[in-house]
Amino acid sequence: MPEKYIIWGSKGHAKVLSDTLALLGHSVCAVFDNDRNAVSVVDGAQIFHGVDGFDYWKERADNLTVYNGLVAVGGGRGRDRIQIMNFMSSHDINLPVLVHPSAFVSCSSKILQGTQILAHAMISAGCFIGKACIINNRSGIDHESVIGDGCHVAPGATLCGEVKLGENVMVGAGAVVLPRIQIGSNTTIGAGSVVTKSLPEGVVAYGNPAKIIKENIQ
């Protein structure tokens, strides 16, 4: 059944989400962005700016409980995604899991609200994916892995079995994390890296094998 969505964020990721919603038969009714100069990238959806813009839209919208919300803020900005989701939730906007029709999600895995599983992504058996995560195009998360809130697994990245990510971890495009590796919260893995050893929280690491190069200042 067609559903109504709003998207917070109006850059490239909003286009990705709107295309996915169209494939599922849903529509985007409005776009929001904190940048006052942002324009809507979703055809037919008006843009509103900041909290003031949301309040203006809210006063003219239908019952807010009929709307679903998605956050189009990617990269290592998991805390921002969660903050925006909390704002939406406080206004009775629903925050469903979004799964692209071409993605595979095991029936034995659990995925929390607001997480996005995009085109050709794979979530294997017994995984746990926290809220406000982005599991991007062609990425794979193998069996019994645990992904904390606000993580972003970029296109083509591979997490092997029993990997554990803390909160707000960014795994760059094409990176590989070997089995049973643990990565601490707020850590960034560079694109194309191969992670062969567990990493602490709050660092940036890249290379093959991945090595810590600096603290992750956020």
Helix/strand layout:
Elements: E1 4-8, H1 12-23, E2 27-33, E3 46-49, H2 50-60, E4 67-71, H3 78-90, E5 98-99, E6 104-105, E7 110-111, E8 116-117, E9 122-123, E10 128-129, E11 134-135, E12 140-141, E13 146-147, E14 152-153, E15 158-159, E16 164-165, E17 170-171, E18 176-177, E19 182-183, E20 188-189, E21 194-195, E22 203-206, E23 211-215
Parallel strand pairs: 1-2, 1-4, 2-3, 5-8, 6-9, 7-10, 8-11, 9-12, 10-13, 11-14, 12-15, 13-16, 14-17, 15-18, 16-19, 17-20, 18-21, 20-22
Antiparallel strand pairs: 22-23
Helical content stands at 10-25%
Number of helices: 3
**Rg, Å, rounded:** 17 Å
Order of helices and strands: EHEEHEHEEEEEEEEEEEEEEEEEEE
Strand arrangement in the largest pleated sheet: 5-8-11-14-17-20-22-23
- Specify the CATH architecture of the largest domain: 3 Solenoid
Tell me, what is the CATH class of the largest domain?
Mainly Beta
Low-confidence stretches: none
Query: What general outline do the C-alpha atoms trace?
Result: globular
Provide the CATH superfamily of the largest domain: Hexapeptide repeat proteins
Q: Distance N terminus to C terminus?
A: 40 Å
Structural class: alpha/beta
CATH topology value of the largest domain:
UDP N-Acetylglucosamine Acyltransferase, domain 1
Q: Give a short account of the largest sheet.
A: 8 strands, mixed
